[in-house]
Amino acid sequence: MAGTKVLLLLALAVVPAFAANYDISWSNGGDYSSWASDKTIRVGDTVTFQYVGGLHSVDEVNQADYTACSTSNTLSSDGTGNTVITLTQPGTRYFVCGTSGHCGGGMKVSVPVSAAGSTPSTPSTPSTPSTPSTPSGGSAPTGSSGTPSTPKSSPPNAAAGFQPGKAVMVAGAFLAGGLALLG
């Protein structure tokens, strides 16, 4: 009987915890208004904002401040370059760039988060927001002044939503529970 419990616990321990990461190339001149429209983002997933630190920031705000592009009541702020946000509860999260004028230029995104489900999230290929049209006689923005950067490719496991660290934590929790039952 004890042997059966151990085998069952070991079988459960190797089941990985699935979570997805969604990349956002965070730059001014982009349109993030429909970024989440083709995604099912769940509790446990992460969003990685990829940008040039010092030029931009990722400020989390409430819905009213998101609508008004205000950063006077930020919930959190980071300007280091690659900001990773872990989505820990269902609901909509709101993010804006705190650099003056950037939010008003479209550098803001709302992220609807669904409750965790039994089916793992599968992120689409990292999206690059559309750039504004070029005024007649002008030239298109380039470099860090406006063109969204191409995101770095993720390791194969990250693209599939598998996070080895979470799998190890789940395995440890199952093993600890199993040892408590046996001991």
Total strands = 7
User: What is the CA-atom radius of gyration, in angstroms?
Assistant: 20 Å
| Mean of pLDDT | 71
N-to-C CA distance: 14 Å
Q: Could you please say which CATH topology of one domain applies here?
A: Immunoglobulin-like
Q: Mind telling me the CATH superfamily name of one domain?
A: Cupredoxins -  blue copper proteins
Helicity, in percent? 10-25%
Which features does this protein show?
183 residues; alpha+beta; Immunoglobulin-like; four-stranded antiparallel β-sheet; 7 strands; globular; metal ion binding
How does this structure look, described?
It comes from Colocasia esculenta. One of its GO terms (molecular function) is electron transfer activity. Keywords: Glycoprotein, Metal-binding, Signal. This is Phytocyanin domain-containing protein. The protein is of the alpha+beta class and 183 residues long. It has a domain at 17-127: Sandwich (Immunoglobulin-like), CATH 2.60.40.420. The chain has four helices and seven strands, in the order αβββαββββαα. It has helices at residues 2-13, 63-68, 156-159, 164-182, and strands spanning 21-25, 46-50, 58-61, 76-78, 82-86, 91-96, 108-113. It has a four-stranded antiparallel sheet. Strands 1-2-5 form a three-stranded mixed sheet, with no helix packed on it. Helix 1 runs antiparallel to helix 4 (164-182). It is globular, with a radius of gyration of 20 Å. The chain starts with a helix and ends with a helix.
